[in-house]
Amino acid sequence: DVEVGLSGHGSTFSSSTSTTFSYSPPWLSPIEYLHDGSYKWRINQLLGLKAMVLENEEELMKAYVKDLGKPKGDWFLEKNGILADINHTLSCLHKLMQPETRHTPLWMQPGSTKIIREPLGTVLIIGPYNYPLNLIVCPLAAAVSAGCNAVVKPSEQMPETANFFAKYLPIYLDCHSCGVVLGGIPETTTLLKIKFDKIFFTGSDRVAKIIEKTVAGTLTPMCLELGGKSPVIVCDDANLTVASKRIVQTKYLNCGATCIAPDYIMCTSAVHDKLVSNLQSCITSFYSDDAQKSENYARVLNKDHLERLEGYLNDAKNKGANIFGGEIDMNDRYMAPTILTNVTPDMDIMKEEIFGPILPVMKVNGFEDALGHVKKGEKPLASYCFTSSSKHTDTFLSNISSGASCVNDCAVHVLSPDVPFGGVGNAGMGSYHGREGFICFSHEKAVYVNDTYTDGIRWIRYPPFSGFKEGF
Ligand code: NAD
Q1: Is 225 a catalytic residue?
Q2: 466-to-346, 456, 462 alpha-carbon distances in Å
Q3: Which intervals hold domain Aldehyde dehydrogenase (predicted)?
């Protein structure tokens, strides 16, 4: 039997594979409990989310740092990302909630057509470990902005942050509409027995496939926010100084555990040595000679992840790669910011998402060669190109299909709340943030409103279709 604690409702319920839930809390059934879905209700939920973060900042920051051993700088990034997203939604919510008039063909006039966006219902949001706050709060903000009830399941790898949600979400949000379920695989598996109106999952493609299988046959729509290998092409005409700073900053942020982190670099021999030397200087300048002592450098999640990363290094070394950095302290969950050169596509590290502080630099024969390499693999969650040429920019943007792209930067697109965030192909399906977040949790209902007064001139639509009508 699996016990699932329902925070905020003062009760627990049990389930085994053969029994159904003995207790159905209100938020699991929008029929039993229906908030009015008004603009006011939605605004209150968004303001509640904001207040939850701001009023308990100290406690939240402590939980966050304790869970991940993260530097405080990372916390501010998470917090500001959330606030930017919520503020943007607050500013455009009224407009988003208005019906949208669409073109009505002449023969259907004076009736009119429009789109009404209605809440999908009760949704499930499952979060990953790496940005435990942002990747629960931002989808939740999108869900409540669309007028949905939501159940959130934070990552069990971040117990302190998950407990924070369990403690505060039911206080700051309408506790009948938003619930928190804590736990890992068994609890999530139990939760998935409930038919939700949408599942919003952020995590690995491996687990996404398991969840798809678990809910197969229920026709539950899903938004999948997954990962992948996000390439960086550094062209010969790139500003190498700026490129190195931006790549190092976004790669080693959160110790490499960022879904849109630059995964690997491709460049030609013409700039390779200069680029690698610049990257090394940036590492030293950002994190000092000993990153383990730096206040700005995070830690790897756990021993399993460290061993996985160590495995990449050993495999690459055996196949002829050179390693800069690579120091590991298992007890401290530490891996130094690491660069690999002399990298070839057959190395394990070039086959899987790295999700750690190792940056492979692979030599290519030119820009076209780099594009060809990306196109051979799965579509990435993000793709990056550093160049000063508009021709390269256009070719890059029109040739590489990815969830998002940046030119002369990495990962920063996520901070603009007015563009969709999501993947394509193996990197996921569906998107959110701002308008797209609202739409993600809405059904866009097509509506036609006709009159009855002009029925006399509509005689042609009614049978029998004989005589004069046959010509139409
Ligand atoms: P994960 O897939 O291991 O776990 C994600 C969630 O799924 C957790 O809440 C976990 O409890 C749950 N889960 C795990 N196994 C399960 C199972 N068998 N059945 C049901 N639920 C299960 O992901 P993670 O390690 O926490 O996060 C890292 C991954 O997430 C990376 O691949 C990264 O690229 C991806 N990610 C994507 C985004 C994005 O926005 N696209 C953001 C962050 C992370």
Answers
A1: yes
A2: 71, 18, 11
A3: 42-447
Q: What is the pLDDT of residues 346-361, one digit of tens each?
A: 999 999 999 999 999 9
Rounded CA-CA distance 317/319 in Å is 5
Q: What are phi and psi of 105, to 5 degrees?
A: -55, 150
DSSP 8-state assignment for residue 195: -
Q: Residue 325: which of 316, 333, 315, 313 has the closest Cα?
A: 313
- Record the pTM: 0.92
Using alpha carbons, select from 24, 86, 26, 10 the residue that is nearest to residue 53. 86
Measuring from atom 17 of ligand 1, which residue has the nearest CA?
Answer: 185
CA of 260 to the centre of ligand 1 (A): 14
Contact of 381 with 428, CB cutoff 8 Å: yes
Is 135's C-beta closer than 6 angstroms to any atom of ligand 1?
A: yes
For atom 35 of ligand 1, the residue with the nearest CA is 203
pLDDT digits (tens, 9 = 90+) for 41-80: 999 999 999 999 999 999 998 998 888 777 777 888 889 9
Centre of ligand 1 from the C-alpha of residue 443, in Å: 26
Burial class (CB in 10 A: 0-12, 13-18, 19+), 104: middle
